[in-house]
Design goal:
- This protein is about 5% helix and about 45% strand.
- It has about 290 residues and is mainly β.
- It has three domains: about 20-125 and about 185-190, Jelly Rolls (Sandwich), CATH 2.60.120.10; about 130-175, no CATH class; about 195-285, Jelly Rolls.
- The strands form four sheets. Strands 1, 16, 17, 18, 19, 20, 21, 22 and 23 form a nine-stranded antiparallel β-sheet that branches. The chain has a seven-stranded antiparallel β-sheet with strand order 2-3-4-11-6-9-15, with no helix packed on it. A four-stranded antiparallel β-sheet has the order 5-10-7-8, with no helix packed on it.
- Strand 12 and strand 13 (about 150-155) form a beta hairpin.
- Helix 1 (about 130-140) packs across helix 2 (about 165-175).
- The longest helix is centred in the middle third of the chain and has 11 residues, at about 130-140.
- The protein starts with 12 loop residues before the first strand and ends in a 5-residue tail after the last strand.
């Protein structure tokens, strides 16, 4: 069965159809900008806050080599995303970007569609919400400049101060210097799911799983599930599931390709495939 399942409790399940979320352009502190569908958010101000977006990036996008104080999982759907010496994400590739670990520089092909989950890492620094980010960046543009992934401002003594753009915004929001956690991993982890084997799930006929990995002491899990046409599967709670292919019913809601299924609590939820379904699972970090 899916990870993090428990028995005897009714699960709360959310089903978000990609067509219900508009694609919106967003101002950004990196070079080139991008558009995205903001599929799902966590709870602002909590250590496990997150933001799930389906991002469409043009070839004008560029970001210098940098690091964050939060974790990321990326799933490449169309096009390519180049992270220089760290690797190139081509369709089907999944990558885990740990907090505190440098990556990039990064650039995009002419049309890159990527599922991006950003979330609070094991350090407990949490994740700054898009609203917090946008408000602070707008305020900072009144006195400084964002360019090429950096923020520049002239201090009262005339010195020009340059900082990584995200770091500068985070410090504005938090009111304290950003202290990066130590590297748990020396580089991002790029995964080729096609090279992992499917394994049948005991007691769940017609269902199988590819387990890609578990990361940090907070046990972030990444896996794929396959459910054959007509079969059902109990999915574990505390996870986000993204429909890579197929269609079916989750709870009382229908789903299809690129639907997001979110089971917030630890209780499992039942889904049934109308046609063979493949799901990407991202098991969220455990802070309790």
């Amino acid at each position: 069965m899916g990870s993090r399942a428990s028995v005897g409790k009714q699960s709360a399940i959310r089903v978000i159809g990609v067509e219900t979320v508009p694609m919106s352009a967003r101002a950004h502190v990196r070079t080139g900008g991008f558009s995205s569908r903001r599929l799902l958010d966590g709870r602002e101000g909590t250590p496990d806050n997150f933001s799930l977006q389906l991002s469409l990036t043009p070839d004008s996008y560029f970001s210098p080599r940098h690091r964050h104080n939060f974790d990321q999982v990326r799933y490449q759907i169309e096009g390519e995303y180049d992270f220089a010496s760290d690797g190139v994400m081509t369709p089907g590739v999944v990558a885990y970007f740990p907090e505190g670990t440098y990556y990039g520089p990064q650039s995009s092909s002419a049309h890159s569609l990527t599922l991006v989950l950003q979330f609070g890492g094991a350090s407990g620094n949490g994740y700054m919400s898009p609203e917090q980010y946008d408000r602070a960046a707008a305020e900072m543009r009144q006195v400084g400049t964002f360019a090429n992934g950096a923020y520049s401002v002239v201090a009262s003594d005339g010195r020009k101060i340059n900082k990584d753009a995200y770091e500068a915004v985070w410090e504005r929001v938090s009111g304290r210097p950003l202290v990066y956690p130590g590297e748990r991993y020396s580089r991002p982890v790029f995964m080729q799911p096609e090279n992992f084997a499917w394994h049948p799930i005991d007691g769940q006929p017609g269902a199988s799983r590819k387990f890609l990995g578990e990361f940090s002491e907070r046990r972030v899990q990444i896996a794929f599930y396959r459910i054959e046409s007509g079969a059902s599967l109990m999915l574990g709670g505390g996870s986000i599931y993204f429909v890579a292919s197929g269609s079916g019913v989750a709870g009382a809601r229908e789903f299809r390709v690129h639907t997001t299924i979110y089971i917030e609590d630890e209780a499992p939820a039942d889904i049934t495939a109308r046609e063979t379904v493949e799901l990407l699972q991202i098991g969220l970090p455990r802070f309790s």
